[in-house]
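Exercise 7. Given the components listed, write out the predicted structure of the assembled complex. Treat all entries as one system.
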Amino acid sequence: MAQNRDSILVVGSGVAGLSASMSLARQGYNCILVEKAGSLGGHAAGYTCKAINGKCQKCGACLVDDLLARFGDFPEIQVFLETRIDRIERKKKGFTASLNGKYGLKDINCGAILLATGFKPFDPNEKSNLCFSSIPNMITAVELEAMLRDKELPYRPSDGRQPETIAFVQCVGSRDPKRGHPYCSQVCCGYALRMAGRLRDLAPKTKITFFFMDIQTFGRSFSQRWASLQQDFIWINEIPGDYFVSDGDRVGVSVEVEDEIVDLSFDMMVLSVGMTPTDDQLTYQQMLDLSMSSEGFMLPDEDRGVFVVGSASGPMSIEKSITDAAGSATRVIAYMEGAR
Amino acid sequence: MVDSNLQTEDRDVLQDLAERYGVEGVRSCYACGTCAAGCPARRVNPAYNPRKIIRMLVLNEAKSLLEKDTIWLCSSCYTCQERCPQGIKITDLITALRNLAVQQGRSPSGVGMQANLVRSQGRLYALDEFDDKKRKKAGLPSLSPQIEEAVRLLKEES
Amino acid sequence: MNLRTIDKRVMVLGDGETAVRLSKALNTSGLDSYLLWAGGTPPEGIPEGIAVELSARLVALQGQVGDFTATILSSDQFIRKLAGSVMVAFESRTEPVFDVATAPMHEGVATLEDAEAILRGERQISGDVKTVVFLDRLDGASTPASSERQFNAILSFLDRGIKCYAIGCQMKVASRNLELLYGRARDGGCVFFKNDFLSISFTQGRPLIRFEDLILHEEKEICADMVILAENFMPGASLPELREILGVETDKAGFMQADNVLRLPLQTNRRGVFVVGPSRAPVTRWDLDQEIPAAVSQVKELFAWAESFPYEEVISFDIDACARCLTCFRSCPHGAIHFTNRPNFLALACQQCGICTAFCPNEAIELRDMEKDRIKGLIANERKGSDSAPVVVFACEKSGARILNSIPSEDTLLRRIRWIQLPCGGTLRTQYLLDAIGNASEIPERVMVLACHEDNCRSGMGTIKARATVERVKSFLDSVGWNQTKIEFISTASNEAERIRKLLAAS
Ligand SMILES: Cc1cc2nc3c(=O)[nH]c(=O)nc-3n(C[C@H](O)[C@H](O)[C@H](O)COP(=O)(O)OP(=O)(O)OC[C@H]3O[C@@H](n4cnc5c(N)ncnc54)[C@H](O)[C@@H]3O)c2cc1C
Ligand code: SF4
Ligand code: SF4
Ligand code: SF4
Ligand code: SF4
Ligand code: SF4
Ligand code: SF4
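Answer.
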């Protein structure tokens, strides 16, 4: 359709990059999609379904498969897997990017750049009191997602047994201005509670405890759901201080309960890790002369053809990433038409 | 009772803490509980609770805080300060509160005695024969009960 | 390629900022927009190019994307308008949080909306206000949209040197920059208390709030000059009627989008009818800022899709078999059947859910590629090689079939099953199941139907229908004493390969 228009470079193929490139393609633009990993889909492609008893919990994880299923229909999108961008040069009109990867080195020209490079799950080793690397049965929620997807049930890393008691710790690496994360990651209450519901559905005897500050509303009809969730799990409105190995292989914590410090222990602990900027962010900021948002993510420079979409611009859910991608497509097209 | 009279007076305490001791940002506490749950002093004495200290400051109850002995229970281990996600300088704040309390003549008696000892002898605790005996056994020379240099310096300082 | 002619005008329905911003955004991007404005006075800031119909109410909408005909009641006159797409963009209604204010409305009690009016200078406060208490929902189910308003109001009050307290249950900060706003409110001097219980009384005309501070474990009381109640966002007043007129789904609260992720971001069950902003769900400023440009892309993408949609019938209809019973018309979840003296199937609106084919009492409708005889043939021929394949699976394209397709072809598991892909669980017909047992080259041990989880079905109804069909066949087989075949319904999603593998391997 639009053969002689400049292409648009999309970096990253998570839900945001996929949605944005498909939206642009449908509206008649050619896209070059560059993905550093060996497959498309980003983080969400590794998540579990959280349906309970045959009822969808609206986590949105399967939407990435939907996007991927439709993706094949777009000859307008040229995909470079296992590829990174070494350099980007601003030209009088548009940009030249040097791709480096599976298909060798290649310079491409484009009219605008969409950064959909996503996020990095918070690395619990950055928070020393968690003692993450020395507690075998402490895992991150990313690991739990993968475990449930690949094995259907949770297993303890130490002995492969199914845990009878599980504790989730919320806000790990989020709402943490001291570490440069002065934001709520928006998704971890939702994913943790949905996974907990799923765990209880699959193994009804599992006792699940939550350590939290505030539980964020997720999904529609949260108020009814919250009322029943309060019955289903044990709720401790505190964040623990110390984390340690207890009884050989259990996970212990010290925490305030009713105005006293108590030590509690669990078969397994899941850290609800937040969304943090990727390691590449700085490189892109420098390459394209971008500033940082007050939350520490990349800010776009839309007047000069650089757009940031999805969780690369700040924490957001799959749902919001898809909306944001469609919205960005409109702005990119406005820019492209103005630049012509 | 949260009441406007208390606020005006206590705001000065927060101001004092900020201006004279550089400890600010108490209000950003969102009560996560990390500080209290890891505090070793709290383990020994459950009446002690760093989060409550912060909370009382937020609620403009500094006055009653200064009147109590609890602020003196902190062991200054800095665990809480190290961990507070809001970056509140909890330990520094407690030290500052102690300074304020001393100025208002409200320190526990032991603290005053110790301060006098430092002032008069330049030492944290008095030397006695027992110490000298131990030193002799280890082949060390005996010490003078007073460190004159320290006493002089302290005098000059004040 | 022969492109379809598509009407690319977009009709925007609304009564406030969202509709105005949306019309403008559509207009700027080169689409003609037409604003059906609920109010009698024209909205401010509407540029020349956008036609506005005042005091207008939609009363009927016929047709499909690219070719809608709207009947509008405008100042007591019926008018007809053509449009390619319709966007619902009404503002929400707010309702004060009354679960805490057991006391009657009182001079010292205001809603957040009142407070905003005071801040804008549109309303005066009586007396000298020094201390204000903000009350949020105490059931923990507030929304970021409502806390955003609250935090902003708190900051404005603090700016005026007014002492602020806020009591709520769970602080909702899950939106862009909201945690920072919460931090600014605390740093600015607002004290937040978290509790799910409090009491209000009035002393000398001033509200007195009592509650426990859960950190100090002490009773606290605040004597305030004004209590400001947070508000819940409710669906706009015109939505219930509009929903009937448009034939679109709503969620439990009445917002005009089903609780189904397949409708995201802005779609409804009726292709070409979009819903944007507070009509869709409670939204923050940031959400709205994304949704408006997203709506522009969504409709342009849809128009492009519609233009290139081939002129082929996806449904074959046997007019002689039809009894004009209207069942298909009533059961179609997508408004894809227009009934004159017979059903007319709107190609661009049909989502191939097959619900009509499964419901039609006379088997007058068939979905292309899903004809009874074709399926019968498939069941007989799908046998792979000479192996015995004692399992027959009907799998929805979106879930079960994606899983089966992902199993490598050399996997021995596949040799034991014969499977047929359905475009939607809703296309499953009783006859297919009976054929799978009665007309197969080998009597199956198991017949499995793999369709999407409830609420994750593209048509909304397909899974429910498929489950019901399986149940019906099951009890029929029971009643005739057939026990050689186990027949089961299993709901799944594309990312549940492991679970489905285990289930298949168990046979
Ligand atoms: C444990 C966990 C569970 C979650 N569960 C849910 C859930 O249930 N529901 C929900 O809505 N959200 C959930 N989320 C959030 C969800 O993961 C994000 O909303 C979503 O992944 C954002 O998509 P994205 O495209 O912005 O980023 P990503 O998924 O991170 O995709 C970014 C892509 O860009 C690629 N990339 C990065 N840098 C480069 C580069 N320099 N060059 C080339 N390619 C690059 C990456 O390889 C990746 O493929 C969860 C998050 C976590 C941490
Ligand atoms: S939205 Fe989530 S819970 Fe629902 S079907 Fe998809 S993956 Fe499963
Ligand atoms: S979503 Fe929940 S767990 Fe995640 S940062 Fe926000 S409050 Fe914490
Ligand atoms: S750790 Fe910091 S934020 Fe948390 S309760 Fe203690 S002082 Fe407050
Ligand atoms: S510094 Fe003081 S208050 Fe903080 S953890 Fe150590 S003993 Fe407790
Ligand atoms: S359901 Fe069947 S018989 Fe009834 S009107 Fe529709 S096509 Fe005709
Ligand atoms: S297949 Fe579904 S969408 Fe199409 S006409 Fe029939 S019921 Fe309607």
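Discussion: Residues C 332, 334, 336-337, 345, 350-356, 367 surround iron/sulfur cluster (ligand 7) (CB under 6 Å). Chain B touches chain A at residues 28, 30-39, 42-43, 46, 49, 51, 79, 83-87 (CB under 8 Å).
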